[in-house]
Amino acid sequence: MTQTDDIKQRIDLVDLVQGYVKLNQAGTNWKARCPFHNEKTPSFMVSREKQIWHCFGCGRGGDAFSFIQEIEGMDFPETLRFLAERAGVELTRDDPKLRTQKTLAFDVNAFAAKVYNRILLEHEKAQPARDYCARRELSPETIETWQLGYAPES
Ligand code: ZN
Questions:
Q1: Looking at the whole model, is its pTM more than 0.70?
Q2: In a 10 Å sphere around its CB, with 0-12 CB exposed, 13-18 middle and 19+ buried, how is residue 22 labelled?
Q3: Contact, 28 vs 49, CB < 8 A?
Q4: Cα(128)–Cα(89) distance, rounded to whole angstroms?
Q5: What is the mean pLDDT of residues 23-33?
Q6: Which of 10, 20, 51, 95 suits a disulfide with 87, CB 3.0-4.6 Å?
Q7: Residue 72, CB-side half-sphere exposure with 13 Å CA sphere
Q8: What is the pLDDT of residues 46-64, one digit of tens each?
Q9: 30 Cα–ligand 1 center, Å
């Protein structure tokens, strides 16, 4: 089973879509006004049984992945990460599909944030910065939560 299939099995498309669009049950399907085109009467349908969505107005449709790609404006690797997190599936790091320019940039950025955050919290050279934070009433928990960082001269 691929990671994509594993994720799909753990996510319910109706629940996922409900996070963005208010769906009403119509027989075995769920329907709403389409989030991707302007309409007065609902032609956007979601099937829980088949785990697919389709809009009879604009013709868009697909699965959980295509829905998130469309509604969040994400590319495939971003969507894969987004849904993996939601599904509690750990992605294999060497999956080439995950290595795009954009996701690499996010990783580098997250790593840098962690480094400067650790420096602020623990490095001896960051004492003046910690004193400053204390004067501003920023607790270590806040610094951790918001990943505040400090870059020493060196
Ligand atoms: Zn539509």
A1: no
A2: exposed
A3: yes
A4: 41
A5: 95
A6: 10
A7: 19
A8: 999 999 999 999 999 999 9
A9: 14
